[in-house]
Amino acid sequence: MEAYQKNLIEYFDLQDLESDEQQQVVEEITEVLEVRVFNKAYESLEGEVRETMDGLIEEGDPEKVMIHLQEHVPDLNTYFQDQLVEMKKELNEKMNELYANIEKQKP
What local confidence, expressed as pLDDT, does residue 40 receive? Predict the structure, then answer.
């Protein structure tokens, strides 16, 4: 398991899950995180840089897309960090809602 995956497991408190469940949740978190960061980064691009990005997206080469983003979006790491914090906050809110609903259903 990569350090990145281990960090996500710790950050989202997934240690109690079985290994295969951890892997599945980490994959889902990673997918959502990448989409959110990509959208935010894409929104920050303008003009020729954005047009080049559109061409790279059409080519379908994720490595070229990421290199282009890294070259033209200096805040890319900050976007990742911000989205991690936001996702954890959203998860905590959902968990609190679930717990509240469970408590309401108790006699």
Answer: 94
Q: Is the pLDDT of residue 78 over 90?
A: yes
80 neighbors 8 (Cβ within 8 angstroms): no
**Placement of tokens 């920050």 in the chain:** 44
Which percentage of the chain shows pLDDT scores above 70? 99
| CB contact set of 88 (below 8 Å; sequence gap of 6+) | 11, 12
Residue 27 in contact with residue 34, Cβ under 8 Å? no
Q: Which two tokens stand for residue 51?
A: 């047009």
Q: Which amino acid would we find at residue 18?
A: E
**Is the pLDDT at 1 greater than 70, yes or no?**
no
